[in-house]
Amino acid sequence: MTVSDDAATPDSPHPLERVLSSLDDRLAALDERARHREAVIDRLHSENRELRAAQDRTLFDPVVADLIRMHDQLAREAGGLRGRGEERLAELMAGFADDALLALERLGVEPVGAGVGDPFRADLHLPLSTVDDPDPARDGTVAEVAAPGFRDAVTGRVRRRVHARFFRHVGPADPAGSAPPGKGT
Fold it and tell me: Domain containing 74: what range?
């Protein structure tokens, strides 16, 4: 009995097995390419969505600036009306100021406040003036908030800093004619 050349030996795979193995390798490579392509498409889709969202926020920048200004004017007017004893009109103006805040929140802008005694932060506070205070522990802290700040709720970027007055330490007055220690003649 003779062995034909086409017959498989125990050491060599059958030609059909070689073809199937080659097809498996090709399918695995194609599958890997498809997964990579899907990952690239997903990344590009995500970047596109982020760019469109940023573009939408930029598109509304003038509206946001005007709503912030309107809120400030309405809140200031409400305070002035309260000072003159016109509570009914003051409540109406305060309601309109709240409506401006709601419109800002729908545009993705949130108000930022500060409390009395909060330390100064250059990225968050805009100092309007100082208030003299003999307590050194309160130096550089918020004395009074004049207007809230606003920040983008998505990016966290401060759109407008909190307008505030800050405490400034003022030591006790020196008696007239006394020189500071160590500076005598």
Answer: 60-107
